[in-house]
Specification:
Helix content: 55-70%
Strand content: 5-15%
Oligomer: single chain
Order of helices and strands: HEHHHEH
Number of strands: 2
Largest sheet: 2 strands, antiparallel
Radius of gyration: 26 Å
Distance between the termini: 69 Å
Number of helices: 5
């Protein structure tokens, strides 16, 4: 399961909600209803939304409270990118621009000297 989650994250998905074991179909459907009712389709904080769905599932007396039925669902990934995550990309871009500028300047000076 970890590699499947990692594959989604490498494809650009920031967060993945997955089941750690084969869960009961009826309890999964009910849990999904609680999740989407709590805002799971809105780009909210999915960790909080998942926790709210768990609490609502457990508060309903018609649901089985055994962890097998509700604890299988976990959130993996990062909520937001780190603050410094774009720093290496910006540094490489800056270095590439600087090298390009130096090369253009050198070509300009060389062609002016060559023309004389």
């Amino acid at each position: 399961m970890r590699s499947l989650s990692r594959a989604f994250q490498r494809a650009g998905v920031r967060q993945v909600i997955q089941s750690l074991w084969e869960a009961d179909d009826l309890s999964t459907a009910r849990f999904a209803q609680y999740f989407f009712a709590a805002g799971g389709d809105q780009r909210n904080d999915y960790g909080t939304t998942l926790q709210t769905a768990r609490q609502q599932y457990l508060e309903d007396p018609t649901n089985n409270a055994h962890p097998y039925y509700w604890a299988a669902f976990v959130l993996t990934g990062k909520e937001k990118a780190r603050v410094g995550a774009s720093w290496p990309r910006m540094a490489y871009t800056g270095v590439a621009l600087l090298v390009s500028l130096v090369l253009l300047l050198a070509v300009g000076i060389y062609s002016r000297d060559w023309a004389n």
